[in-house]
Amino acid sequence: CISKGVVRSIIEDSYVRRSYLSVITFKGRDADVLIRPTKAYETVYKMIDELSVGGTTPLPAALAKLLNVAKSLRTGYKYVFINTVLITDGKANVPIQRSVAEDLHELCLAIKKAGIRMAVYPTEVKVFDPTPTYIEHLVTWCNAEIYKYEVVPKC
Predict the structure, then answer these.
(1) Does an H or E element contain 90, and which?
(2) pTM (2 d.p.)
Protein backbone atom coordinates (compact mmCIF):
# COMPACT_ATOMS: atom_id res chain seq x y z
CA CYS A 1 0.00 0.00 0.00
CA ILE A 2 2.79 2.43 0.92
CA SER A 3 4.79 1.54 -2.19
CA LYS A 4 1.81 2.16 -4.49
CA GLY A 5 1.22 5.52 -2.82
CA VAL A 6 4.84 6.50 -3.40
CA VAL A 7 4.63 5.44 -7.04
CA ARG A 8 1.43 7.46 -7.56
CA SER A 9 3.15 10.55 -6.13
CA ILE A 10 6.14 10.00 -8.42
CA ILE A 11 3.87 9.68 -11.45
CA GLU A 12 2.11 12.92 -10.56
CA ASP A 13 5.44 14.72 -10.05
CA SER A 14 6.75 13.35 -13.36
CA TYR A 15 3.64 14.64 -15.13
CA VAL A 16 4.24 18.14 -13.77
CA ARG A 17 7.92 18.01 -14.75
CA ARG A 18 7.24 16.19 -18.05
CA SER A 19 9.85 13.58 -17.10
CA TYR A 20 10.19 10.11 -18.52
CA LEU A 21 9.09 7.23 -16.30
CA SER A 22 10.05 3.58 -16.31
CA VAL A 23 8.85 0.83 -14.01
CA ILE A 24 11.10 -2.04 -12.96
CA THR A 25 9.70 -4.61 -10.57
CA PHE A 26 11.63 -7.28 -8.76
CA LYS A 27 10.25 -10.45 -7.31
CA GLY A 28 11.14 -14.11 -7.33
CA ARG A 29 14.66 -14.48 -8.70
CA ASP A 30 14.69 -11.69 -11.27
CA ALA A 31 13.62 -8.17 -12.14
CA ASP A 32 11.38 -7.13 -15.02
CA VAL A 33 11.08 -3.89 -16.93
CA LEU A 34 7.30 -3.50 -16.96
CA ILE A 35 7.37 -0.12 -18.66
CA ARG A 36 10.30 1.25 -20.63
CA PRO A 37 10.96 5.00 -20.35
CA THR A 38 7.75 6.76 -21.37
CA LYS A 39 5.69 9.89 -20.88
CA ALA A 40 2.44 7.90 -20.99
CA TYR A 41 1.64 8.76 -17.37
CA GLU A 42 -1.91 7.44 -17.44
CA THR A 43 -0.67 4.02 -18.60
CA VAL A 44 1.81 3.89 -15.73
CA TYR A 45 -0.85 5.09 -13.27
CA LYS A 46 -3.30 2.37 -14.33
CA MET A 47 -0.62 -0.31 -14.16
CA ILE A 48 0.11 0.45 -10.49
CA ASP A 49 -3.11 -1.19 -9.33
CA GLU A 50 -2.02 -4.45 -10.95
CA LEU A 51 1.35 -4.61 -9.20
CA SER A 52 1.84 -7.33 -6.64
CA VAL A 53 4.26 -6.89 -3.75
CA GLY A 54 5.94 -9.24 -1.32
CA GLY A 55 8.07 -12.34 -1.62
CA THR A 56 11.78 -12.57 -2.25
CA THR A 57 13.87 -9.48 -2.96
CA PRO A 58 16.26 -9.84 -5.91
CA LEU A 59 17.56 -6.30 -5.38
CA PRO A 60 20.81 -6.87 -7.31
CA ALA A 61 18.77 -7.96 -10.36
CA ALA A 62 16.70 -4.77 -10.11
CA LEU A 63 19.81 -2.58 -10.02
CA ALA A 64 21.27 -4.46 -13.00
CA LYS A 65 18.03 -3.80 -14.96
CA LEU A 66 18.22 -0.15 -13.93
CA LEU A 67 21.71 0.11 -15.43
CA ASN A 68 20.50 -1.52 -18.66
CA VAL A 69 17.51 0.83 -18.94
CA ALA A 70 19.73 3.85 -18.22
CA LYS A 71 22.26 2.78 -20.84
CA SER A 72 19.50 2.29 -23.40
CA LEU A 73 17.94 5.69 -22.61
CA ARG A 74 21.28 7.44 -22.90
CA THR A 75 21.74 5.95 -26.36
CA GLY A 76 18.98 8.26 -27.58
CA TYR A 77 19.40 11.08 -25.07
CA LYS A 78 23.10 11.48 -24.30
CA TYR A 79 22.78 14.14 -21.59
CA VAL A 80 19.65 12.94 -19.82
CA PHE A 81 19.63 13.05 -16.02
CA ILE A 82 18.53 9.78 -14.50
CA ASN A 83 16.91 9.70 -11.10
CA THR A 84 15.77 6.41 -9.71
CA VAL A 85 13.39 5.71 -6.89
CA LEU A 86 13.78 2.42 -5.12
CA ILE A 87 10.89 1.22 -2.97
CA THR A 88 12.08 -1.73 -0.92
CA ASP A 89 12.37 -3.28 2.50
CA GLY A 90 16.07 -3.64 1.69
CA LYS A 91 16.08 -7.32 2.62
CA ALA A 92 17.79 -8.47 -0.53
CA ASN A 93 18.09 -12.23 -0.51
CA VAL A 94 18.73 -13.24 -4.12
CA PRO A 95 22.27 -12.71 -5.44
CA ILE A 96 23.22 -12.54 -9.12
CA GLN A 97 26.76 -13.94 -9.09
CA ARG A 98 28.40 -13.91 -5.68
CA SER A 99 26.83 -12.74 -2.45
CA VAL A 100 24.10 -10.11 -2.27
CA ALA A 101 26.49 -7.67 -0.59
CA GLU A 102 29.20 -8.11 -3.24
CA ASP A 103 26.69 -7.82 -6.08
CA LEU A 104 25.12 -4.68 -4.59
CA HIS A 105 28.50 -3.07 -3.98
CA GLU A 106 29.62 -3.67 -7.57
CA LEU A 107 26.30 -2.44 -9.00
CA CYS A 108 26.30 0.66 -6.79
CA LEU A 109 29.78 1.57 -8.03
CA ALA A 110 28.47 1.33 -11.61
CA ILE A 111 25.38 3.41 -10.70
CA LYS A 112 27.56 6.13 -9.17
CA LYS A 113 29.90 6.06 -12.18
CA ALA A 114 26.89 6.44 -14.49
CA GLY A 115 25.77 9.51 -12.53
CA ILE A 116 22.42 7.98 -11.59
CA ARG A 117 20.84 9.61 -8.56
CA MET A 118 19.02 7.23 -6.22
CA ALA A 119 16.25 7.85 -3.70
CA VAL A 120 15.15 5.01 -1.42
CA TYR A 121 11.75 4.71 0.22
CA PRO A 122 12.08 1.99 2.87
CA THR A 123 8.98 -0.12 3.36
CA GLU A 124 10.29 -1.98 6.37
CA VAL A 125 7.81 -2.82 9.08
CA LYS A 126 8.76 -1.91 12.65
CA VAL A 127 8.61 -5.44 14.08
CA PHE A 128 11.46 -7.67 15.13
CA ASP A 129 12.99 -9.24 12.04
CA PRO A 130 16.52 -10.66 12.13
CA THR A 131 16.86 -10.53 8.32
CA PRO A 132 19.61 -8.07 7.38
CA THR A 133 18.63 -4.98 5.43
CA TYR A 134 20.85 -3.39 2.80
CA ILE A 135 19.30 0.08 2.92
CA GLU A 136 22.25 1.62 4.77
CA HIS A 137 24.59 -0.02 2.25
CA LEU A 138 22.66 1.66 -0.58
CA VAL A 139 23.12 4.99 1.17
CA THR A 140 26.86 4.40 1.50
CA TRP A 141 27.64 2.62 -1.76
CA CYS A 142 25.19 4.37 -4.12
CA ASN A 143 25.04 7.76 -2.36
CA ALA A 144 21.30 7.11 -2.08
CA GLU A 145 19.06 9.45 -0.15
CA ILE A 146 16.45 8.01 2.21
CA TYR A 147 12.89 9.33 2.10
CA LYS A 148 9.99 8.48 4.34
CA TYR A 149 6.44 8.24 3.12
CA GLU A 150 4.18 9.38 5.93
CA VAL A 151 0.65 9.37 4.52
CA VAL A 152 -0.86 6.12 3.31
CA PRO A 153 -3.29 6.97 0.52
CA LYS A 154 -6.19 4.80 -0.59
CA CYS A 155 -4.69 1.75 -2.20
Answers:
(1) none
(2) 0.83
Q: Which residues of 56-79 are buried (b: 16+ CB within 10 A; e: fewer)?
A: ebbbbbbbbbbbebbeebeeeeee
Alpha-carbon span 42 to 125, nearest angstrom: 30
90-141, pLDDT tens digit by residue?
888 888 988 999 999 999 999 999 999 998 988 866 677 777 889 999 999 9
Give the other-Cβ count within 10 Å of 46's Cβ: 10
Nearest to 77 by CA among 37, 135, 34, 35: 37
Q: Please name which of 73, 132, 138, 56 lies closest in space to residue 103, comparing C-alpha atoms.
A: 138
Could you give the CA distance from residue 107 to residue 103 in angstroms, rounded to a whole number?
6
Q: In whole angstroms, how far apart are CA 77 and each of 70, 117, 134?
A: 10, 17, 31
DSSP structural state of residue 68: H
- What is the largest distance, in Å, between two alpha-carbon atoms of the chain? 46
Length of the chain: 155
